[in-house]
Design brief:
The complex is a heterodimer of chains A (113) and B (114). Chain A contains no helices and 12 strands. Chain A is mainly β and 113 residues long. The N and C termini of chain A lie far apart (41 Å). In chain A, the strands form 3 sheets. In chain A, strands 2, 5, 6, 10, 11 and 12 form a 6-stranded mixed sheet that branches. In chain A, strands 3-9-8-7 form a 4-stranded antiparallel sheet, with no helix packed on it. In chain A, 0% of the residues lie in helices and 51% in strands. In chain B, the strands form 2 sheets. In chain B, strands 2, 4, 5, 6, 9, 10 and 11 form a 7-stranded mixed sheet that branches. Chain B is built from no helices and 11 strands. Chain B is 0% helix and 53% strand. Classes of the chains: A mainly beta (113), B mainly beta (114). Chains A and B meet through strand 6 and strand 11 of A and strand 4, strand 5, strand 9 and strand 10 of B.
């Protein structure tokens, strides 16, 4: 089946530290890959996406590269801010298949000043 | 603001009761999706409607049902509620049934079953 595995959290970093949140996937078809972010008390917001191998999605200083050979889509940011504190979800959707999103468990990030 | 609205924001009820959650999609979006977020199961897809018709079903219990009305708003009905149904229920909408339309999420309805 289709599934997403994220690194276990929580992750606690100091401001300006480098962030990596690992995400790997298994898919029966060709997936599109997404990172969503959930700030405290809010819904999910799309952070970035990639639809084909070697694509790099980027937004607000965050980046993730679609690696088909390693079935990965790791999220990175060079210098985190306190305002980045949130829960991050990796997700996939099979192209040409059901439109449903399959999510990882989420990784809680706390950034301390 | 995603443009997707959900009501109510919070709902507290007792076991055995029935509740209705409402979702209004973004203007122009024809697809509506329902997801459940719980501590043990994470974020799980429940059901999708496209222009009034059911399109896909996920891990939705038989006690739960949904529909999409002609004005495209959707309702998720949860009946014979159990403690384990306590969760955050999200609605999302997208343009269409195929073509890679991005899903935009509402703020969610937090259901507490006592």
């Amino acid at each position: 089946g289709n599934s997403v595995t994220q690194m276990e959290g929580p992750v606690t970093l100091s401001e300006e530290a480098f962030l990596t949140i690992n995400c790997t996937y298994t898919a029966t078809g060709y997936p599109s890959l997404f990172w969503y972010v959930q700030y405290p008390g809010e819904g999910l917001q799309l952070l970035l996406k990639a639809t084909k191998a070697d694509d790099k999605g980027s937004n607000k200083g965050f980046e993730a590269t679609y690696r088909k050979e390693t079935t990965s889509f790791h999220l990175e940011k060079g210098s985190v801010q306190v305002s980045d504190s949130a829960v991050y979800f990796c997700a996939l959707k099979i192209q040409g298949g059901s439109e449903k999103l399959v999510f990882g468990k989420g990784t809680k990030l706390t950034v301390n000043p | 603001d995603s443009g997707v609205t959900q009501t109510p924001k919070h709902l507290i009820t007792a076991t055995g009761q029935r509740v209705t959650l409402r979702c209004s999609p973004r203007s122009g979006d024809l697809s509506v999706y329902w997801y459940q977020q719980s501590l043990d199961q994470g974020l799980q897809f429940l059901i999708q409607y496209y222009n009034g018709e059911e399109r896909a079903k996920g891990n939705i219990l038989e006690r739960f049902s949904a529909q999409q009305f002609p004005d495209l708003h959707s309702e998720l009905n949860l009946s014979s509620l159990e403690l384990g149904d306590s969760a955050l229920y999200f609605c999302a909408s997208s343009e269409g049934v195929a073509g890679g339309g991005l899903q935009f999420f509402g703020p969610g309805t937090r259901l507490t079953v006592l």
